[in-house]
Amino acid sequence: MSRLIVSVSGVRGIVGETLTSEVAREFGRAFATMLGEGKTVIIGRDTRSSGEMIRDAVMAGLNAGGVNAVDLGIVSTPGVALMVGRLKADGGIVITASHNPLPYNGIKFLTPQGLALSVDKDKAAQLNSAWENKKFSTAARKGNVTINHDTHRIHIQAVCDILDVEAIRARHYKVVLDSINGAGVEAGKMLLDRLGCELVHINNKLDGDFTHEPEPIAKNLTGLCDAVRQHGADIGFAQDPDADRLVVVDENGTFIGEEYTLALTAQFILGQRRGNLATNLCTSRMIDDVAEQAGVKVFRSPTGEANVASAMVEHKCIFGGEGNGGAMDPRVVIVRDSFVGMGLLLNHLARSGKTVSQLVAGIPRYELLKDKFPCPLGAAQRAIAAVAAAYKGRAGASFDDRDGLRIDLPQGWLQIRASNTEPIMRISAEAKTLKEAQAMAQEVRKIADANLG
Ligand code: MG
């Protein structure tokens, strides 16, 4: 049986096995203990059928600890984050296992700013310690539950406020959207209707029946590619189940890769105004090229959306995100947002008059290879140190050790880091050609393997 994964931003497990309603209720009580009596928490969920059970249990825990819950119903992760701010709540909870398969669900905790709780290490530790030790506060006055159905309307208005809606509407784009029967269904339709698109909406039910593997990567999106070709659409979009990530299919039905969501949206933003960007250490160099063309900087953070958000705040960035299809515009909400991604990409098409494939051709191309291999827990540091020693003194090499080890070289970059949850190491390598990227990844793996024993 897989174990319950408890991290600094929440908990994830298989429903009924490791993630039971008892665990969910306890986490509700732990969050109430951390916040204190009389506070208010915004709660939303994706379409998984287990969502209602987990929601009810979490809310029972919150109420028992004297905390009020505002139930938004089925909404996206960025939708919850936005509403935490709009309703001036004391925290948020998203019930989702994002792109994990259907048997999973999860509970993600948000700060009053709508950021993952991991940005506040002390609070995250307080929450997890309350849960581990079962030390829950008791409340003199129990909390209550209210219902709020305003999320989609408020969220889509916020997205439209950063777009040239009329310019997009004038183009009458034909768009295929694959919402994987997830939390992006309703707001996705609302946005594309507002933008005057002819929408072919596939996997658009709220039943949480994932008709393909939910991770938005090439092998899972052949149905979307086919639909784009079949309907002669201008663009295809795929969301993940909680609608924070977005990936794109061009007008020929070709999956262009998840890294382009951030590169193209950032390119559009920088065509409008000047300001710095932030992303994580394993996102493609395309973003550096886009920034260089505009004469602005890219700040890199360790992996994790909350780390990117922190870098954006610290360096006053106007835009940021992650290479996994996550675009973040602080004017809407400082979390990854598939609706922001769709809006900005359509605006980019409308403003430039180009097709998706033409926009893609306008950005220098790289091959980004991602690989993993077994590594006993505790052996990672030795292997990483050996890699650092082997590359020391190489011409043009620079090192960043904030997240495993990233080495930038004249021909590309590579990163090696240990997983937090599994006994594996992850390697990313990016270069102009696949051959070069493979050579870099193989060399690193060889050095690491030799130093694991
Ligand atoms: Mg997600």
Can you walk me through this structure?
- It is a single chain.
- The protein is an alpha/beta fold and 453 residues long.
- The protein is 38% helix and 22% strand.
- It has helices at 21-35, 51-64, 77-86, 121-133, 151-160, 165-169, 185-194, 222-231, 259-272, 286-294, 305-314, 338-352, 356-361, 380-391, 434-450; strands spanning 5-7, 10-14, 40-45, 68-74, 91-95, 104-110, 145-147, 174-178, 198-202, 235-239, 246-249, 277-280, 298-301, 319-322, 326-328, 367-374, 398-400, 405-409, 412-418, 424-431.
- Strands 1-2-6-5-3-4-7 form a seven-stranded mixed beta sheet, sandwiched between helices.
- The mean pLDDT is 95.
- Bound molecules: magnesium ion.
- Magnesium ion binds at residues 98-99, 240, 242, 244-245.
- Magnesium ion (MG) binds at residues 98-99, 240, 242, 244-245.
